[in-house]
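Input for the complex:
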Amino acid sequence: MAVQTQKQVKAMTLANKPRGLGTSAILRQLQAFSFTVPALVLLAIFLIYPIGYVIYLSFQRWNLLGNPAYIGIKNYNTLFLHSADFFQAIGSTLLFVVLAVPTQIILGLYLAVLLNEKFAGRTFFRTTFFIPMAISFVAAGIVFERIFSTGSNLGIIPQTLANIGINFPDWEHRSGTWAMLIIVLMNTWKSAGYSMIVYLAGLQSINPDYYEAAQIDGAQNAWQRFLYISLPLLGPTTTLLLITHTIGSFRAFVPFFVMTNGGPAGATTTLIFFVYNNYANRTGVASAATTLFLIAVLAITAVQFLITRRQNVYY
Amino acid sequence: MKSQASVVKKSHTGLIINYVILSILAILFLFPFLWMVATSLKTNSEVLSNPTAILPTIPQWGNYPQVSSDLNFWRELFNSLVMSLSVTFGQIILAALAGYAFARLEFVGRDLLFVIVLATLIIPFEVLFVPLYLMLAGWGDWLNTFKALIVPSLANPFAIFLFRQFFITLPKELDEAAKVDGAGYYRVFWSLMLPLSGPAVATVFVLTFLAEWSDLLKPLVFTSSSDMYTLQQGLAVTLNRGANLAPNTATLMAGVVLTSLVPVLIFLIGQRYFVKSISATGLKG
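Predicted:
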């Protein structure tokens, strides 16, 4: 009885499969396709079309009044030849990337190693390190700015240090480098939890037999086990995190907007901040900068693709 | 599953050192939160005094109603809620529909279209905000409305990917049995697949709601009048810049606490969905 029903099910399923050019087959396919239409239409209008539009705009001069005027590569010329602020923005962004990416990843890895084994209170600690992800960069930025503030509302850290005779650098008004360091600190606090979770998953998926084998082969202590087993096996995870955080750091805007407003003297105006400053009155230039940013993102993603391809050969 | 711990015995001193290090780190990580809440209950002169006391002498609960009016809190809360909830539910519906079709239905070009959807994952909003702003400006009455805050964010390729992955894991017999009974695709989806997709719905809800609630760039660019501000804008723009270059730190912290209550709550409740979706990245490597 059951076998017959199964055969019936199979027969009916095959009958329902849209095959051939019959009207009912076409109607079924259209109906199936219709499921995707709302999402695809919105994707096309709001994700795909704007890419073409911004590239087009990068070759125009427009300040929102009247019509755009074609000016060839003049915007790119302006960026590369006449914009000290653009190069400063690229410099700040690169500095941020170089500082922020390794710190997040290394701290995340360290936390993951600490939490890799089961012990009482492990969930509490894991949540503690992860919860900064819940609040916004606006909130985190404002809190850190206040804690470290060197302005008229002296923050608790500079105040405490001043009381014991240490002069905290005036990162809000004078030192661009220190401004970047404070922002990186906030970013690390906020984002290390993400790397921690990714690494935890990676660590827990490592076959414990490897560690046994390593012990037999003479690996004496935890550090050696980590160095020779965990770290290499986490290679693909590390690559993925490097790429994700690099792209993420290139996109950074809110921390700088909220903590220093791009100062002091433009030292913390990143690429996207630069675009934000120019999108309304120098639309063509902003579009050119955006196009360059897009190319950078695509290049980094392509690098990730190639590296991951090669790494996967081993597994 | 055996863990490293069961294979290698850890010494007692090792465990104690672990706890000490973890406790120190935990204090460092919690400090900004604790400082935020403590400061929100101080008077501003307490905050500025040297040396600053750790706890307020008398909790200034009045800071909260104060910042509510400075921030135009209720209106901004409304704006944030409308935007975050609308985008979240909209994304869930659209992505569930598309994800189901990509996972279970067959039509010409299905796999190619899915590859295109995946390709759009690369595009960050920072690339889009300039052209989107100009497009919306050109469409007349879009800028500075909820339409602008909601509609452009409804298409989320990652959500589509999540739903597709989820529907693929469901046994085929389920919807095939329903189709045998004569149910059309929409019926199968609505009465069978969608109710089953709880985990996927929860995951997209947590991820998207938190992302929308925390977002500053989109509202900053698409809205211009303070009655359309979201909570994040209220904090970043009204309270923290312009005329308020040296705002009252205590009330500012009260504003931060108010803005962070909802996301922290949602995060704590929906943690496992958050963690699960992130962990999957680590496993695939």
